[in-house]
Design brief:
It contains 2 helices and 6 strands, in the order βββββαβα.
Length: 135
Amino acid sequence: MDALIPFTTSGSLVDLVDKKVMVILRDGRKLIGVFRSYDQFANFLLESCIERIHHRFEYADKDIGILLIRGENVVALGEIDLIAEDMVPLREVGWAELEEKIAAENKRRERDHAIKDKVLASIGFVNEGREGDAY
């Protein structure tokens, strides 16, 4: 009966050893590498690791090499399907070029939020961080 209960501890990571995985960290970074080892705290070692950033249908990679990741910083961890990975319609571009596009998009988004907050304030809604009756 106990054999039917799935692992909910770091023991469930044993199936990922020596497989290509993607890790999403608490700070939003996405890492791809070969899962080599782990411990009882779910700290693990990635080999041939890269950091990947995305913007629309473009991506860029930065080589990291070998990386030790603390388990408490991991939001998601999953195996990459090597066949499906080749069919993703993304175009690789340079890291600096993509960082510029992401920064421009973030600047535009901040500007749009400022305009929205100003319009909402003009009709009686309260901006975040201020006291008032409107929630």
